[in-house]
């Protein structure tokens, strides 16, 4: 499944009401570790078809970043059936990120 951009306006539809696992990568263009994590998230989106992988640009969607207390990036939040169940802060390699998502 391809990675989708998450916007504040689509959060309810894409995350809150989604019946399954959603991971949201909070990132910004200027963030080096975010740019390193991006291709990993793209690869995991393809490898894990049952997981919806989304990216949220914190510079463009500050309301969501504030709502979830994002004060450092990259930050990946995991939701199950619309409920926040996990948070990963900082860069993680592919194996670590996959374990976070499926574990």
The biggest sheet, with number of strands, parallel, antiparallel or mixed sense and barrel status, is: 5 strands, mixed
What would you say the CATH architecture is? 3-Layer(aba) Sandwich
What is the CATH fold-level name?
Glutaredoxin
**Total beta strand runs:** 5
Describe the structure.
The chain has 103 residues and is of the alpha/beta class. It has helices spanning 11-16, 32-47, 62-67, 94-102; strands spanning 4-5, 21-27, 51-57, 75-80, 83-89. The chain has a single domain (4-102), classed as Glutaredoxin (3-Layer(aba) Sandwich). The relative contact order is 0.24. The mean pLDDT is 96.
Features of the shown structure:
103 residues, alpha/beta, Glutaredoxin, 5-stranded mixed sheet, 5 strands, 28% strand
Topology (elements, then pairings):
Blueprint: E1 4-5, H1 11-16, E2 21-27, H2 32-47, E3 51-57, H3 62-67, E4 75-80, E5 83-89, H4 94-102
Parallel strand pairs: 1-3, 2-3
Antiparallel strand pairs: 2-4, 4-5
